[in-house]
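testing teh design pipeline on a random one, pls ignore if ur not involved
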């Protein structure tokens, strides 16, 4: 089983008949001189009477019956991102971005909980040079790395953007086999609070100076 082609959590609790020597393992074996890497797989070292590593992780019969044996870092396979509002008003509307971690079968990984590092990037700047904020923290240079709290495979953060144009934002969630996700969002300009016309503007006191009242 190659981890780059199959990435499922597997287990074995077979009982040997007769005598087996390496390259046989508690889970799989390989031909002499060949190279085999196995990940995210476990076998019962008590029933198999093996205790080797590299071709499966040995666990006791008791541990094989515990859900905690198969930790989130070994089942978290991919992440998806969704946004509560795809056309927020710049500078004011805080949208909620929800991240969902899936296992290799495409189901929500309910073992994935606690604080995990996330990098949010590809945020574009407004004409004034500002980007926005994530959970109240100012975004600089188009990205921000922060900790997001997950519960049963789901976490979220608050996002405020400053540039009123379509953006394809990139998410990288560490501790996941395939850590990248993207979402599209198109912030829009806010409505003007008021409109007024000023007449009879006095000239500046000096050339290139400011008007006393801006036209």
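output:
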């Amino acid at each position: 089983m190659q981890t780059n082609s199959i990435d499922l959590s597997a287990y074995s609790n077979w009982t040997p008949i007769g005598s087996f020597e390496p390259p046989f393992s508690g889970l799989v074996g390989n031909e002499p001189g060949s190279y085999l890497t196995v990940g995210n797989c476990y076998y019962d070292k008590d029933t198999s009477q093996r205790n080797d590593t590299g071709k499966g992780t040995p666990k006791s019969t008791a541990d094989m019956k515990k859900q905690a044996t198969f930790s989130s870092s070994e089942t978290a396979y991919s992440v998806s991102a969704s946004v509560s509002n795809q056309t927020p008003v710049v500078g004011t509307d805080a949208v909620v971005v929800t991240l969902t971690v899936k296992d290799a079968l495409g189901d929500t990984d309910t073992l994935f909980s606690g604080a995990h590092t996330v990098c949010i990037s590809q945020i574009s700047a407004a004409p004034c040079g500002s980007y926005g904020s994530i959970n109240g923290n100012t975004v600089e240079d188009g990205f921000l790395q922060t900790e997001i709290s997950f519960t049963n495979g789901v976490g979220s953060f608050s996002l405020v953007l400053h540039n009123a144009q379509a953006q394809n934002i990139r998410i990288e969630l560490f501790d996941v086999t395939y850590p990248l996700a993207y979402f599209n969002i198109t912030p829009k300009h806010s409505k003007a609070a008021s409109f007024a016309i000023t007449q009879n503007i006095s000239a500046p006191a000096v050339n290139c100076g400011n008007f006393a009242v801006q036209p």
